[in-house]
Each structure stands twice: as structure tokens, then as C-alpha cells.
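DATA SHEET
Item: assembly model
Revision: 1
Owner: S.N.
Input lines:
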Amino acid sequence: MARALRLAEKGAYTTKPNPMVGCVIAHGEEIVGEGWHVRAGEPHAEVHALRAAGDRARGATAYVTLEPCAHTGRTGPCSDALIEAGVARVVAAMRDPFPQVDGAGFAKLQAAGIAVESGLMETQARALNRGYLARLERGRPWLRVKLATSLDGRSALASGESKWISGEASRLDVQRWRARCGAIVTGAGTVLADDPSLTVRLGDDTAFVAPLRVVLDPGLATVARGRVREGDAPTLYLHAPDAKPPRDFSAQHAAVPVREGRIDLEAVLKLLAERGVNEIQLEAGATLAGAFLAQGLVDEVLLYIAPVLLGENARPLFDGLGIEAMTHKLQLDVIDVRRLGEDTRVLLQPRRQ
Ligand code: AOF
Ligand code: ZN
């Protein structure tokens, strides 16, 4: 299963909106076939592994990181393929919450006399597909906030400018996190201050599916400008219901509820989940980052700490948290720490009360 999980992760940049899935077919210690889901619309992991195994799938055990599907989507049901190949036993890491599967894959296999077990390395399998699971189980994507900070906890100058705080290794690392996500979300303020392109630039020919670039812009103040509409990735503007895009507007746009000039963030997340976004990377300023955090909508903080000082006039990481007493402090758990050149990368998760 550990091997199957590693195979699954090879699809991290390309399977969206589908989950990453890996499959290993074995007789005891001997692996006879393996595969992973590469791209939505293409064969599932089991099909690749069964093809590789050929006749040797008969009587074998299939280790799969997700329940084999029972439905005919863009490909035929994997449970049928496993049955036809004569597999004797299927060990899954977890059940697939996808409504058309959700136990039906296991039931099909069992009805055909195949021994089925589920739950092996489930924690790791759930962590791998945290975005897919967030979308299906709670109706909103997994949300990661990416921030670059100075040693004194500042994210931008007073002007809002926040470019080039972190070093080159960190900036390349950010590209890999971007490649994983289904949408990169930013705010109008960041478009005006930094003019980011929000594209994925991995520096090599690694395949990826370009994330949707989303600009939260209640009044559509930035549509006439910005690199966010250039390059090879779609862009979606989310605006107030009464804002009207210019007549010759070519980018995607949609209205979301706005209260007192502030976009309803939960509505944004619901809309993006409905569009198949599993994982969001928020790359915005302190106002938007603070609003998501204060509303409990942040799942993960990706923080690059650079050995620079920006001084007391610079902007904080998060605005509007409204913390007055120690008892109100927000506690996060450190998931991972590593050095990237001169910078330190810390991955954290807000602790759920
Ligand atoms: C599996 N093995 O490798 C994957 C599965 O659009 P489709 O036909 O590719 O179906 C997508 C759904 O199939 C997805 O939401 C999930 O339930 C399942 N993904 N299942 O047996 C795989 N990728
Ligand atoms: Zn399948």
C-alpha cells in the first residue's frame, strides 16, 4: 500500500478534479503489476495495473489507495475489471465518498466472491487526497494560504508591495504547490499592488493541469489590467451582483453575494467546489488572508520565512483577527519544517477547537 500511495502521488499535478489513486498487484511479496491514475478522462489506476499484470492478475491481491469504482464515468468500472481479471483479494486504503461509488465498489467485488479489506494506511490515503475529500465531504475545497514573511512577521510594504521577500528556492517551491491546486485565489488589492501572473512555472517539462486563476474583485476594478489574464491558464473574476463586466469582456466571471463591500467567502468556496476545485492556494494580501483565517476557512498555512526585516511600517501577515487577549490567540500545529536556501519553510494547520 505504501508503494501504491507513492505511485498515486505521481498524479498530483494532473488528476484534478479526480483523486490521486495508485494500485499495486502482487502475489505475496512479488509485484506483478502497478499503475496510477494519470489524468481525468484517462484509465484509472487499476486498469493500468491490470494491463501490466496480464494473466498474472489471476489469484493475486490488488492494493488500491481508494475503493475501486462501481460506475461507468469516462472509463468503465474498475471493480468489473478486477473481477474479470480474476483477482482473489482487494485491499483498499479507504472508501470512495463519490456518490456513485461510496461502498458500491466493495459490494460488487464481494458479490463476485472477492475478499475485500479496507482501511490499510487510511490516514495517509486521506492526507494524500485531502482536497478531493474536502470537496466531496464538506462541499468546499481544501484551502492553503501561501505567505512569505520577514523575520519580523511582515508580509508586504505599506504600499502593499510584497514581491521578492523570499529567495529563489522558495519561489520555485511555490510553483510546485501551485501545480497541485485546482485554483489560485487572489484579491483585487494584490492584482493592483503586485500584478502577479499566478501561472505555474516549474522550469522543466513536467506535465500539469493549469489551475484556475480566481480574482475576488467585488467592483471589477482590475479587469482592465493585470498579468493575471495573460498566459496559458483560465481566469475567473468573482464580483458583486451589481457589478457589470465591460462589454467586450472575455474572461470568465460570476456574481457572488457581497455584504458591506465584502465578498461572502463561504459562497466563493462553494462555487469553486461546484466547479470541481479540490484544493485552493490563496495568494493574497493580509486583508483577504485574515478574513479567511478569522472565519475558520483556512486548512493549511504555507509560510516562507526569509531572513530579512521589513520594519514597523510594513504590513502584517493577517489583518482583522481581532485578538485582544491571550485567550483569543489562534493556535496552529506545525506539520513540517525545512530549509530552502536562506529561507525556512513551515507548513502549519490551524488547530480546530
Ligand atoms: C478508481 N480508480 O484510479 C480513480 C477513481 O470521470 P471518471 O470516470 O474518471 O470518474 C471519476 C471518479 O472515479 C472519481 O470521482 C472517483 O470517484 C473515481 N476515481 N476510481 O477506481 C481510480 N481515479
Ligand atoms: Zn475506476
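QC remark: The longest helix spans residues 168-180.
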